[in-house]
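[job 0412] stage=fold_complex status=start
inputs:
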Amino acid sequence: MPIQCSTGCHKNAVLKRPKTGDALCKDCFFWVFEEEVHHTITAAKLFTPDDYVAIAASGGKDSTVLAYIMKLLNDRYNYGLKLVLLSVDEGITGYRDDSLETVKRNEQQYSIPLKIVSYDELYGWTMDRIVEQIGLKNNCTFCGVFRRQALDRGATLLKVDKIVTGHNADDIAETVIMNILRGDIARLQRCTAIVTASEGTIPRSKPFKYTYEKEIVMYAYFKKLDYFSTECIYSPNAYRGYARAFLKDLEKIRSTSIIDVIHSGECFSVRDGVKLPTQGICEQCGHVSSQPVCKACVLLEGLNKGKPRLGLGKTSKIREHLKRNDENLEGVVASDADTHKINIPKTINIKQLDF
Ligand SMILES: Nc1ncnc2c1ncn2[C@@H]1O[C@H](COP(=O)(O)OP(=O)(O)OP(=O)(O)O)[C@@H](O)[C@H]1O
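[job 0412] stage=fold_complex status=done
writing structure:
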């Protein structure tokens, strides 16, 4: 016998909400999903009228749903935002070129203009070439550091006021766990912030901070959104994979685990007097950095000097060498043994969800 939607709308339920366990029909699910994101946006005052906002768009499920919902809420609630899609082409043949085709279709489907910046034009390197140098291990470090800066650079070119990313509640909870396991209190303090903004950078926010990944997948599925679902061919998911697996296990026992971990992260505070890194400007490229030379410049220097592992080891030592323009970098370059990898799939198959 069909189960009725728990809102009392008299329609049949088609899903069980992962966040609350409620049985809902499609329309009521769409409504609660959209209203929760609207609540997150308004409660945190993420935007002001006339803001020009770049949606960081990879073509994946999170940023595709984000682009769709930003447009929907902007129209429904008259936020008064001017929207633009901003994509970074990391130069990964057979992956990013295909996902960018999806973003190009989204540009037409949602009538939001698109700007693409590439690692090749910004750094003179594509990820394909970086992987040729460094191999599959550690390549995510390059990609993550370069992408962060590339988004900033693209946003500066566009002269936007704000950037939004599709980071969801699961991503944030994983980051909390990773920072605890690494004892990284500086990042632990920052990682749950819904807006990150340091002087001289364009503020970034996460409207999906409280949105479960499973619900984003369901929303995209029932709305039949056009998104790219293949995993990155170079990403074995590194350390994050362990945190992800741990969180998924917790979620099976207790559905609120994701939000609970985020709340725990928010409750941490650093004792007065504990020294934390301060943000400054990179001496080489002028971008924001907590070190005299930013990580992107250190990594680039290594690539250009034919020492791609530079920057993967103890960064303080490497920066000293860079300062002295030291050509002999032996002994400061990380070995393969410094990293641990695990292969855990990131996408959720909608058929595996518990309806
Ligand atoms: N190449 C890119 N260009 C623009 N934005 C990106 C790119 N890669 C990632 N992002 C932004 O960072 C967010 C988190 O990226 P992550 O790599 O964790 O992917 P994800 O969780 O699979 O998200 P998505 O489903 O949107 O790809 C994305 O939602 C998007 O907003």
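[job 0412] summary: The first strand starts at residue 15 and ends at 16.
[job 0412] exit 0
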